Every structure is written in C-alpha cells, then in structure tokens.
C-alpha cells in the first residue's frame, strides 16, 4: 500500500449539471486482499469458509502461501499470487529461476484457480532501484507460464501506485506518467500487456487523498452525494474521486500512444488495455471508528467505520453494476478491497493495521455485501425510493447529481423527456433516486442519499415507467 504525495488540484464548478452515462460496460468483479501479517488470524481453511459465506469470489495473496493455495483448491474462487519485490532480480536475470518459480507456485496447485501472477508490488514507489528489472521479470514469468501451457489462463501484471503519475488525481485530463518511467518503462510495459491480453493494475486510494490534503471533500472521497468536481480539460463532471483517479490513468496511457491504438465509437483513440483495469488494492480503514457522526458531515479524523463502510459499499455496488467512468463509460473494472482482516503485525501507523473488513474472529467490522444486488421485495411487496422535500433544494440537487452520475438513467427528466413534468426539484430527484434504488437491489443504503431519500412501500403515482415500477 502506497502513501503517495497527493497534491490535488480540485476545481469546484459554480454551476451544477447532470452527467448521463450510456456505456455498455460488463459488470466487474470484486475480491479481497488476503494479507497474513497477524499473529491472531484464522487458519486458511476457516478463511475459505468465511469467503464462501460472504459470496467473495476473488482473493489476492501477497506471496504464494502454500497453506492458502491448498485451502483454496476446488472452491471456484479466483486467486492472484505474487512474486515479491525481493525476487524480481532473480526473475529478471534468470529464465531458469522463472521456470522454477512458476513450477513451485502455480503448477504445483492444479486444483486452485490461479488467474494472475503479480510481479512485484508498487515497485516504482517501494523499490525504485528495481524499476528497470521489472519488465524483464514480467516477461520471463510470462514465458515460463507459456512454457507450462498457462500463458492464456494466467495473466502477468504488476500493481502500480498512483504516484507513477505526475498529477495523481485531479483533474483527470492532465493524467500523465512521470518522465523517469513514461517512455523507458510504461510504454513497453503497456505494449507487453496488450500483446499478452493482460490488463492495467493500479492501486487506487481516495482515502489517502482525503487524509493528506485538507482541500478534499470527504463526500467526494467516500462516494457520498456531492455537487461534483469539474474537469476543464474534458468538460466532464466527477462525483467521486475513485472515478477521477481511474480516468487519470486512462488519460496517461492514451498519451503514450503506439500501434496498439484503435478508435472507439465516440471518436477518441484509445488502446485496448486502457479499457481494462483491475484495481489490486482499494479501501479505507474502519477499525478506529467513530459513532454518531452524520454521514454527510466532515469528520475530524480520516479513519472511521462510517467512511470505510460508505466507501467500500458504494465501490462494490459501482463495480458490480458495470458503470465504467465518466471518460470511459465502457471500461471493464474489477477491484480487490484492501483488506480481508485487520492485521496487527503490519508495519506503519494504526490506520495501516485497521483496513480489515473482518476482525480475526470472523465477525464483520461493518456490514458490506459482496453479492451482485438483485430485485428483492420489502415488507409487504415491492418498494420505491422518494425524495424528502424537507431537506431543501440545494441538498436535493447535490443528491440528484450524484444519482445521475453514478448509474441512474436520468434521460426521462431531461428537457423534453417523458417525465420532465412536473419540472420541480423534488419530482426530478424522486425519479432519479428511485431509478438508482431499483438498479441497486432496493438496498436501504441505496436510498439514503445523505438523508435526502426514503423508502416507501406503496407505489407513488408518478412512478409509472417500466424501470421504476
């Protein structure tokens, strides 16, 4: 996990606008990072039962732990293994070492669904002296996998910290790789990912942006309703920092260019790999939680169960919905939540040890649902989400923008749309809230909107569209 120097240039637009998405992205997948830096953690067989109990279908290991790989055999759970930074020089300089590593850490577990090998972790940030050995190590591991007949089934990747960009977060349109790695490392690496059918892997942590930059709006960082941030380079409005960070990477890859480019229907030229991203780490610490703090208020401290639950729950819903990003609505994004457990031996401050979704005894730190939401009736049958007029037009507008910018189909309330009338803030907000609520499995959280929405169990007269009814 990186602690990058994040200097965010946040542009606050004066006018509010609705952002509409019409992308056709495939729904992504959500997994967890299974770290083992604790002296009180359950044994791997118990961990596997915990994963199954909560519908978690992907895990990422920070090494190739034999006990974990054996326990995950024949479970249907996808597993990512890692070659640690310390082993990169050997893998880069010796093909025979790469072959032995693949034999011992991949081929030795034929019943375990290993789908990726991460070569190193945040090398540019954690071990910059290995920078120019990284790609040779990736190529040797890929060649070893291909020699074992696993070249297509197991993808070679490397997790990268966001400080590989000159401007890590905002505005996304200025996203560009640092001069010391752009052409010497990143361009040939992206070529390699293209050629092998692999994908980008960047660790994305809005939490650290909020923690270290006082200008970052917590609602923007943690997926809560907000009035958005405007990117003057593209004219797009962002309603969460995760999307902004991902799009900054997409912009950086586009600026590398090369023969792997192709033109999308929107006229933009983009490499194939710049529509595929797997985020090997993202999350927020919740082990030092505060209670009784309103969900839309600024918090005195950055680590809280409220922040962590809001961020992880909304990130999971976003990925499972296949919403893409404002700049790349058809992007295919999957995410691993950091992390499965609070790890009491992890170095660093208390935050580092309290990112866990579960305590070591297997109980949840806070409620998070990993399964794809589906329609489910509330008490007495179907339910709907309506706007609360008492909160005032300003808060309703912020929440309306959030719903439309995060997957709700708001075309019906545009000027000339079938549900534009009555042209009132509360009517438009109810329409958007309900569409978002229905698309997200009618979970209570998806109708909260910072207190602007509420669930009802009798159909309001204005909800007569096929998607809302």
From TrEMBL:
Q: Which residues form a coiled coil?
A: none
Q: Which Gene3D superfamilies match?
A: 1.20.58.1040, Glycosidases
* Boundaries of every X8 domain copy: 383-466
Q: Name one GO molecular function term.
A: hydrolase activity, hydrolyzing O-glycosyl compounds
Cellular component (GO) terms are: plasma membrane; plasmodesma; side of membrane
Extract the signal peptide range: 1-17
InterPro entries, alphabetized: GH, Glyco_hydro_17, Glyco_hydro_17_plant, X8
Q: How does it sit in the membrane?
A: Lipid-anchor; GPI-anchor
| Keyword annotations from UniProtKB, A to Z | Cell membrane, Disulfide bond, Glycoprotein, Glycosidase, GPI-anchor, Hydrolase, Lipoprotein, Membrane, Signal
Q: Name one GO biological process term.
A: carbohydrate metabolic process
Region annotation Disordered: residue ranges?
279-301
> According to its UniProt record, what is one Pfam family this protein matches?
Glyco_hydro_17
Q: Where in the cell is it found?
A: Cell membrane
User: Family assignment?
Assistant: Belongs to the glycosyl hydrolase 17 family.
Q: What protein does this entry describe?
A: X8 domain-containing protein
- Species of origin: Triticum aestivum
């Amino acid at each position: 996990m990186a602690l990058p120097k994040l200097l965010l240039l946040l542009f606050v637009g004066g006018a509010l606008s609705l952002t509409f998405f019409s992308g056709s992205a495939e729904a992504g997948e959500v997994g967890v990072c299974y770290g083992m830096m604790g002296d009180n953690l359950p044994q791997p067989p118990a961990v596997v039962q915990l994963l199954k109990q909560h519908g978690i279908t992907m895990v990422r290991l920070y090494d190739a732990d034999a006990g974990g790989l054996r326990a995950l055999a024949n479970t249907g759970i996808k597993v990512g293994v890692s070659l640690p930074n310390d082993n990169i020089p050997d893998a880069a300089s010796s093909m025979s070492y790469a072959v032995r590593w693949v034999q011992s850490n991949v081929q030795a577990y034929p019943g375990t669904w290993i789908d990726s090998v991460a070569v190193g972790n945040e090398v540019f940030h954690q071990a910059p002296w290995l920078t120019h050995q990284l790609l040779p190590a990736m190529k040797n591991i890929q060649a070893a996998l291909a020699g074992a007949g696993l070249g297509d089934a197991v993808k070679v990747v490397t997790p990268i910290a966001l400080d590989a960009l000159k401007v890590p977060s905002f505005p996304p349109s200025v996203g560009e790789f640092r001069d010391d790695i752009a052409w010497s490392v990143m361009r040939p690496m992206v070529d390699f990912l293209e050629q092998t059918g692999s994908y980008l892997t960047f660790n994305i942590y809005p939490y650290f942006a909020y923690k270290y930059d006082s200008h970052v709006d917590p609602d923007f960082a943690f997926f809560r309703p907000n009035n958005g941030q405007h990117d003057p380079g593209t004219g797009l409005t962002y309603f969460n920092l995760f999307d902004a960070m991902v799009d900054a990477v997409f912009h950086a890859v586009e600026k590398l260019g090369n023969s792997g480019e192709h033109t999308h229907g929107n006229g933009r030229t983009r490499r194939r790999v710049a529509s595929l991203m797997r985020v090997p780490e993202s999350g927020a610490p919740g082990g030092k939680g505060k209670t009784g703090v309103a969900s839309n208020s600024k918090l005195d401290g950055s680590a809280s169960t409220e922040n962590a639950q809001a961020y992880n729950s909304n990130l999971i819903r976003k990925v499972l919905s296949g919403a893409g990003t404002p700049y790349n609505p058809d992007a295919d994004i999957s995410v691993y939540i950091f992390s499965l457990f609070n790890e009491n031996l992890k170095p660093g401050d208390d935050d580092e040890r309290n990112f866990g979704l579960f305590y070591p005894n297997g109980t949840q730190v806070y409620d998070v649902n990993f399964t794809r939401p589906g329609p489910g009736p509330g008490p007495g049958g179907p339910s709907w989400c309506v706007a609360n007029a008492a909160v005032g037009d300003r808060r309703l507008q912020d929440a309306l923008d959030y719903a439309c910018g995060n997957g709700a189909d708001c075309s019906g309330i545009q000027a000339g749309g079938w549900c534009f009338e009555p042209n009132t803030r509360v009517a438009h907000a109810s329409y958007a809230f309900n569409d978002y609520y229905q698309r997200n499995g009618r979970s209570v959280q998806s109708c909260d909107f910072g207190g602007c929405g509420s669930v009802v169990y009798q159909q309001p007269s204005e909800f007569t569209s096929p998607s809302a009814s």
